[in-house]
Structure formats: structure tokens, C-alpha cells
Design a protein that fits this description.
- The longest helix is centred in the first third of the chain and has 31 residues, at 2-32.
- It contains 2 helices and no strands.
- By secondary structure, the chain is mostly helical.
- Helix content is 81%, strand content 0%.
Length: 74
């Protein structure tokens, strides 16, 4: 179970980091070219899934912290 939680945490962490990078870059490009619509659309399209993945990664990290270490189970 610990392995599954760790892998899921890693997956959601990677997804949320990529999504966060895409969100910031999209808004930065919109700022540079002075296109407010691009900034809003980027937030609408990328923001919500990214925030959900960040929340899931946070919960999985919290759950993972409750698993005992192998060296303490002896």
C-alpha cells in the first residue's frame, strides 16, 4: 500500500508541477503580449485541473507520512 501511495503522490506531483509551469507561462505570455483574454483562458483551462492535482498530491503526501518506516518495524 505504501508503494502505491508513493507512486500516486509522485504522479500527481509531476502533473501539478507541469500544470503550474504551463499556467505561469501562459499568463506570462499573455502579460507580455498584453492579451488579457489569453491570461483568463489559461487560468480557466489549466488552473482548475492543476489545483485539483496539487490538492490530491498534498493529501497523498499527508497519508504517506503516516506509514511506518521499514527500520522501525523490526
Amino acid at each position: 500500500m505504501k508503494s502505491i501511495v508513493r507512486k500516486a503522490f509522485t504522479l500527481f506531483l509531476i502533473i501539478f508541477m507541469i500544470g503550474g509551469t504551463a499556467l505561469v507561462l501562459g499568463q506570462l505570455i499573455g502579460l507580455i503580449i498584453q492579451n488579457g483574454n489569453l491570461m483568463v483562458k489559461t487560468s480557466e483551462l489549466v488552473g482548475t485541473p492543476t489545483f485539483i492535482c496539487a490538492a490530491i498530491a498534498g493529501m497523498l503526501g499527508f497519508v504517506y507520512s503516516y506509514f511506518p518506516d521499514k527500520k522501525n518495524t523490526e
